Please model this.
Amino acid sequence: ATGRPPRYFRPPHGFRDPLVLAEAERQGLTLVNWSVICRDWMNPGVDVLVERVQQAVAPGAIILLHDGDGLKQASPREQTVEATRVIIRSLKAQGYRFVTLSEVLEQQK
Model:
């Protein structure tokens, strides 16, 4: 889609078994998982999603949000979309910056 090969891979469900690790290495991909999960697929409400992120976020955090619920695509995503708006505004107001994954990983070295 971007015309460039991927550099990073988040394995489905975060699974890092030996086969996944070996294939990622073979493909030259860096495996990356999240550090904050708010379980948005459960549709608990915007306020709950925002609170879960606020409680767990720290500098360098990688927040996992979903744009769908797998193959079925049956669950609505309005809560995640609205929570994302609120989370971004709130974290910016607290002084957080949103950066690329490359920047986060470089800062963690």
